[in-house]
Amino acid sequence: MRLDKFLKVSRIIKRRPVAKEVADKGRIQINGVLAKSSSNVKIGDQVKIQFGNKILEIEVLELRDSTKKEDAEKMYQIISEKRVENSDDV
């Protein structure tokens, strides 16, 4: 599944164009490798996303084409969630 679609369906990022923009700015890594919005995500992958002053690290548990809001969180598990003081350091 494409990274931008996974982020939208899992509701980590609400809109697909926003997910694409974040990925294309170099703020997302899959298994430690810089990812583009078209990168493939597989079950077991670790995805690291930088949102402004927050870094979210998740593990992909499920891939679905669509999901209900209450089931979206079952698609991933949060590994860590950190705040960073200066977003230029990352």
Automatic annotation (TrEMBL):
Matching PROSITE patterns:
S4
User: Which Pfam families does this UniProt record tie to the protein?
Assistant: S4
Tell me which Gene Ontology terms the entry assigns under biological process.
Answer: rescue of stalled ribosome
Q: Which InterPro entries match?
A: RqcP, S4_RNA-bd, S4_RNA-bd_sf
**Residue stretches making up the RNA-binding S4 domain:** 1-64
Q: Entry's SUPFAM superfamilies?
A: Alpha-L RNA-binding motif
Which keywords accompany this UniProt record? Answer: Protein biosynthesis, RNA-binding, rRNA-binding, tRNA-binding
SMART domains registered for this protein in UniProt: S4
Give one GO term, molecular function aspect.
Answer: rRNA binding
Q: How does it assemble?
A: Associates with stalled 50S ribosomal subunits. Binds to RqcH, 23S rRNA and the P-site tRNA. Does not require RqcH for association with 50S subunits.
| Function (record text) | Key component of the ribosome quality control system (RQC), a ribosome-associated complex that mediates the extraction of incompletely synthesized nascent chains from stalled ribosomes and their subsequent degradation. RqcH recruits Ala-charged tRNA, and with RqcP directs the elongation of stalled nascent chains on 50S ribosomal subunits, leading to non-templated C-terminal alanine extensions (Ala tail). The Ala tail promotes nascent chain degradation. RqcP is associated with the translocation-like movement of the peptidyl-tRNA from the A-site into the P-site.
The UniProt family comment states: Belongs to the RqcP family.
- Name of the protein this chain belongs to: RQC P-site tRNA stabilizing factor
